[in-house]
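Sample entry (169 residues):
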Amino acid sequence: MSLSLGVCFTGHRPERLLSQPEDLVFSESEMKLLLHNEILSALNDGFFEFYCGMAPGIDIWAAEVLIPLMDQFPHIRLTAVLPFPTHGLTLSDVWFPRYRYILAFSDRIIFASDRSSRQAYLIRNRIMVDHSQRVIAVYDGSSSGGTAYTCRYAQKKGKEIRFLPVRKA
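Predicted structure, serialized as tokens:
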């Protein structure tokens, strides 16, 4: 039996990414192109298990990039890792349909906790890192927040982290 190589995603929420001056930040389509290239690189490196935390922004964008690739790479497996069962109900009308679309294409769903709490999000992030050998991160280097926590945890666990730029050069 071979080890299945896993990748997970982490990144700042769109509000944070887009709070910078417009000419310095990537649009959603530009960020999705960066994610597409990194996902193709992971596929070429033998990674076929992908873990998505289902948060607005990087998580959902990455899954939206991944789903069309499933036709070309039928061995891709997508796992939605939710902090708690009612997580999607807290999403806006913009993000909820995208969330439901991703769940429809997910091979499995993992719940980190049975109820909403800040701890549930941290547990979700640890589950994704623990199941992955590579982390694709859109991270600005800040010391607080879920993305910072996930990157620190991945470093502590010796995971490979592929950082994507937060801002244009």
